Amino acid sequence: MNPYEKKRRWKFFLLFFAIVIGTASVIYTDFFVKKMEREEKISFQLYVKVTEQSLVMYDDERFNDVIETIMKNTKLPVIMTDGNGVINSYQGLDSTKTNYDVEKQDKKTYDPAYFERELHKMKEQHPGTPIIGLDGTIWHIYHKDSFILTQLRYFPFIQLGVIAVFLLTAYVAFSSARRSEQDQVWVGMAKETAHQLGTPISSLMAWVELMKSRFDAEDDPLIAEMENDIKRLEVITDRFSKIGSKPVLEDHVVYTVISNFIQYFQLRTSDKVIFKITGDDQVRALLNVPLFDWVIENLLKNAANAIENEGSITINIIEHLAKEEVFIDVTDSGKGIPRSKFDTVFQPGYTTRKRGWGLGLSLTRRIVENYHSGQIYVKESELGKGTTFRIILKSSITYEPTST
Fold it and tell me: Are 81 and 130 in contact (CB under 8 A)?
């Protein structure tokens, strides 16, 4: 199992674990909510019975004391109205809005708007309970859930939201720290590799010069190819030395840069793969040639590996004048990529080869996006027919609109 698959499985496991915790929290809280609902329902029914009895036995002082005690201990927000909907009494509402002074006089009144809002909320939550007085008058008692019960209903969602924000923040922080640490390791390894390659390359250059002079092989094609390979090693060493440093971008003709690399790469690839370069051969862009060659090399290697027998690789260069951008499409006639893997192929560690490290396309994206301020993505792909990768670079030529 490659690192990407392990990482994905861990993500699924953590997501499943979070869902289990969230579900358990919601179920556990729902148990208490229902229990409180039953208790509040019983409390309200008791309040209704007591109120109904108070209308019948209003002249019994001892019973009135009991009624008053029960009603005062009822914490539920309650409003009682007559048959016309006029508020007659209340219980458990905001004391700062139920009574207040009017112009510093002894007269007390209530906030009508507040009572109407509360009554409207009560009617939305529960139907009114009718009671009948001595004279046959019908009263209605309304109530709403207590503040604690309301908060308890929303608590699991608030809790899950806070946990989710905390986990997301922690994940981003740890991921950023881990990437930074990994980057430092890769930069150190790259620079050390460049340093280690320097000595044998210099030695190989000296041996080639010795062979040319001793065997009079100035024009020998084999010696020429050995020199090309040594130059290639120098380029690779230069690439590794540039990792972690801000590269110098220079103005180059894109067609020429790609064509020069293909001339070298084509000789070291199967002759059953045909290379083509099409499009605008005068487009210019700011490039770091050693690093950009690395991008093209990774794309061409992947394209060649995707072609099992015979096939072709086409590089099409397009200039988008309106956006001042250069499009480079690398198309192969290989086995294709499933649409679900379009983003996955750029993940470190993802590979379809048994001996691959899965770093080529990840490094390619970093070189294009971080060092050249461009973009790279899978433009299109079809299983059994081929794939097209698109690179977008900023053009080095600024076009002024023509005036008419």
Answer: no
For every residue of 227-238, DSSP letters joined together read HHHHHHHHHHHH
Please report which helix (H) or strand (E) contains residue 187, including its range. helix 147-214
Report how far Cα 133 is from the mean position of its chain's Cα atoms.
Answer: 64
Question: Does the predicted TM-score (pTM) go above 0.85?
Answer: no
Distance CA 154, CA 26 (A): 10
Q: pLDDT tens digit string along 31-49?
A: 888 888 888 888 888 878 8
Q: Strands 311-320 and 273-279, how do they pair? A: parallel
Cα(309)–Cα(364) distance, integer angstroms: 25
Q: How far apart are CA 286 and CA 236, in angstroms?
A: 20
Measured distance CA(371)–CA(342) in Å, rounded: 22
Q: Give the pairing of strands 386-394 and 375-382.
A: antiparallel
Q: How far apart are CA 232 and CA 290, in angstroms?
A: 10
Question: What 3-state class would DSSP assign to 171?
Answer: helix
Tell me how far apart the alpha carbons of residues 171 and 157 are, in angstroms, rounded to a whole number.
20
Using CA atoms, how far residue 200 sits from 66, 173, 189, 204, 214, in Å, is 102, 42, 18, 6, 21
Contact in structure between 302 and 361 (CB atoms under 8 Å): yes
Nearest-angstrom CA–CA distance, 166 and 132: 55
Torsion, Cα 275 280 285 287, to 10 degrees, reads 10
Q: What is the mean pLDDT of each run of 10 residues along the chain (404 residues)?
A: 64 79 82 85 82 66 60 74 80 71 50 84 87 78 84 80 80 76 72 80 88 84 86 81 78 94 86 92 90 92 89 94 92 92 81 67 89 93 93 82 52
- Torsion angles phi and psi, residue 198, rounded to 5: -60, -45
Q: Which residue has the tokens 């930074």?
A: 180
Environment class of 268 (CB within 10 Å of its CB; exposed 0-12, middle 13-18, buried 19+): exposed
Residue 160 is encoded by which pair of tokens? 């899950």
pLDDT, tens only, 258-298: 999 998 888 888 888 999 999 999 999 999 888 899 899 99
Around Cβ 272, how many Cβ atoms within 10 Å? Answer: 12
